[in-house]
Amino acid sequence: MCTYVTETLAVRGSAKGPDGWVRVTDATVYFDHPAHALADHTLNVDLRRPDAGPGARVAVELTAESARSLAEAILRILDDPTVAVLS
To answer: How high is the mean pLDDT of the chain?
Structure first.
């Protein structure tokens, strides 16, 4: 069963796709059936730049366990005092 829980937010950064690096301006995060990952449901993250067309997109599909581990690692890194000095 799909939850249709989706969040879209503005981001600033870059992502590397099949044609090289692209600036990304939008992120969409949702929990749904994956297109490629071998799991029933995954946390899906699309990083995109809509004004550059459909090719300006990088997608990630992670199991819930992997997504939680990644989120925790991201927060640990961002909470490190040496990172706070640089941001």
So the answer is: 92
Distance CA 32, CA 10 (A): 21
Question: Do the Cβ atoms of 69 and 59 come closer than 8 Å?
Answer: no
Q: What are phi and psi of 41, to 5 degrees?
A: -140, 150
Q: What is the DSSP letter of 18?
A: T
- Which is higher by pLDDT, 40 or 2? 40
Q: Amino acid letter at 67?
A: A
Structure tokens at 27: 């992120």
Residues 49-74: tens digit of each pLDDT: 999 998 899 999 999 999 999 999 99
Q: How far apart, in Å, are the Cα atoms of 20 and each of 44, 46, 54?
A: 21, 16, 14
Paired tokens of 82: 């040496």
